[in-house]
Specification:
two-stranded antiparallel sheet; mainly alpha; globular
Length: 298
């Protein structure tokens, strides 16, 4: 039975890994800042994936990639890792990983819409209904009624919600560019190229913002480094690996649907690890969001 459902099991493990990653990076970001967390996790992720490709492909670096692959995957890394994750990780600090990951559930519908615009990928009625339900589930959590003015207002920091939304757009654009650039190229080597461009991008950001002292402080903070290391192992390395395994053994739709349950899985972590209070409305909103994302793949 386990063998027959290996892809589904790998998808569920991926969702658990990404939950661990989001929680770890929130804890680290609140200690040393989101910029340092981003930079260090990319360095750790690069080392782990490079060691893996050395054993599996006989190449430490993706030297066999075409110039086209380098262009699109590098652009994907800059938009997805640097712009997208820079805003997402700051959202972790502003509104927490639970609400941030809920808003990140917008990535599949945004990606589907961008795929329709850029590559002519078809949108079915089920896809459109799924998008509406996903947005409704998120709205249920982040919006609340103002009884005095009889209008709606945000339940959380507008800045934090905006950061998470920009992060979702960055992730979506990064996925589209990855799909264009990767083709049938090795996914791990493609991830290497994205990480390399991400490291270059963050290096420029650190020079421009003169934040090297903050990076040194982060590297010397043992507690923060513990969380960054955990997040890096379960995110860029194990999370990516198990997601690829899932896609190999089951359909992309099934794998994407199962991994989209992160907004629900992260609720217990938020309660027991981050000590947050979660209202019934927020739990219902997370479940509705996951249902909406699921409809995108039917």
């Amino acid at each position: 039975m386990a063998q027959a459902h290996f892809g589904e099991i790998a998808s569920l493990i991926t969702a658990v890994f990404w939950t661990i990653t989001a929680t770890s990076f929130e804890l680290a970001g609140k200690k040393v800042g989101s910029l340092s967390v981003n930079y260090i996790r990319l360095m750790i992720g690069f080392i782990l994936i490079s060691l893996y490709t050395t054993f599996t492909r006989g190449m430490f670096l993706p030297l066999d990639a075409t110039s086209r692959a380098w262009f699109y995957l590098s652009l994907s890394g800059l938009i997805g890792f640097v712009i997208g994750d820079m805003f997402l990780f700051q959202a972790y600090v502003e509104i927490g990983s639970r609400i941030s990951m809920l808003i990140m559930a917008l990535v599949p519908p945004i990606t589907a819409f961008l795929g329709y615009i850029t590559m002519g990928e078809l949108l079915t009625v089920s896809n459109i209904i799924g998008m509406i339900i996903t947005i409704s589930g998120i709205a249920l959590v982040v919006l609340m009624r103002n009884p005095e003015e009889k209008t709606l207002k945000f339940s959380y920091s507008v800045k934090g919600i905006s950061y998470a939304f920009i992060g979702a757009i960055g992730q979506s654009l990064g996925l589209i560019l990855s799909k264009i650039g990767m083709g049938d190229y090795n996914p791990f080597a493609a991830t290497q190229i994205r990480i390399i461009s991400g490291i270059v991008g963050f290096t420029i950001v650190f020079f421009a913002m003169k934040k090297w002292d903050k990076l040194k402080e982060a590297l010397s903070d043992k507690n923060a480094m513990k969380y960054i290391s955990i997040g890096s192992i379960f995110g860029p390395f194990l999370g990516v690996s198990f997601n690829l395994l899932a896609i190999q053994y089951t359909t992309t739709g099934v794998a994407s649907t199962i991994t989209s349950i992160v907004p629900v899985l992260i609720i217990p972590a938020s309660v027991f690890i981050l000590k947050e209070k979660v209202s019934p409305k927020e739990i219902i909103g997370a479940v509705v969001t996951v249902v909406g994302v699921s409809l995108l793949f039917i």
